[in-house]
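Justification of computing resources. Each target in the renewal requires a structure prediction run like the one illustrated here; the chain below, 431 residues long, is used simply to show the kind of job we budget for.
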Amino acid sequence: MSAKLLRGRVLSFRSRPQARDDHASYLFEENGAVLVENGRISACGGYDEVRLASPMGVEVIDHRPLLLMAGFIDPHIHFPQMQVTASYAANLLEWLNTYTFVEEQKFADAAHAARFAKLFFDELLRQGTTTAAAYCSVHKGSADAFFTEATRRNLLMVGGKVMMDRNAPEALTDTAQSGYDDTKAVISDWHGKDRNHVAITPRFAITSSPAQLEAAGALAREHPDLLIQTHLSENNAEIAYTMELYPQAQDYTDIYARYGLLTRKMLLGHAIHLSDREMDAIAEAGSVAVHCPTSNLFLGSGLFDLRRIKEHGVRTAIATDIGGGSSYSMLRTLDEAYKIQQLRNNRLPPLETFWQATRGNAEALGLSNRIGTLEPGTDADIIALDTRATPAMRIRLETVKTLEEELFVLQTMGDDRSVRHVYIAGKIVTA
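Resulting structure tokens:
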């Protein structure tokens, strides 16, 4: 692949901003550039400096005045739930039983799974999401469809065959043994091949028997490099039912700990209603609490307590949770996260939210050496954002004076219309 020099306003995060004026936490160049060679970033910084370091005859692509950033990362999303989004239900358990479990049964059909794999990645890329950690359905074929399409597009994706052996329709359950065997097969077929990453995926304690969680724990011991993804403490009724099923556990978090799943590789979707003991246990293990703001609001599950989570030293991520979530857009997700923190009397700076959606989520996945920044040596998954994408945004930008103000307008008023270009491993895929 020939070299490309992408010119634009460049933003890349080095660390989580600790204050609104924490300039050391990020790189911002008003007249910046990113040099891409062989699918990776070779240099990033001021245009003049990067231009001088570029090979002779490099192709210059001028994206000014767009904002060049690492692609967004969505660390909790459900591949089979595109047609579940915006389903009318009173709460989580009603939503699962009335809509979600019905829809996911369709993914036993290979043609259906293949069709939706294409639609799923089309939508992610349209929104500027270049990596996601996805739940497939209980069927191994759904994971095969997911990774087949990701491979065809050269995407860096994380996915897992859901393990669930009880409290779901018979057509949507496996067994402890078959869930283990199918996951082993998905790992063998896909993990580490091209840009694919497999995650061990017990849906949640309600739909996994003790035998199945034991099998998931065995997989985690056998494959310690793999991510583990599940759900935790999303809804009060869910928590009560879970504790009925696991009365020997101290609390919901303790269930996963008992089976060896609470590790630094674990992504805990939602994690809203947590005791101090649970937060301390999650922090000690290094597991990640994944905030899903549009889903939590849509299903009335609760308000994520980011301040308290951080005080306990828990690592965090932020995600759309399609189809419980109501938008594929990480910009819309950041906007709802801000509003939730307002209701918690916790002012959330836009620099921190954009760090979370890029480098922060990459760190949560253990992939910040590959994605989430524009640092040299990382994969060239890059988006070009337009902060003047709509008439209303252009009017508002007339009075904006700082990067922080601009990012806040982008997350508050922006959506897919703000995503002008997407590069995957240096190749433009939306223009």
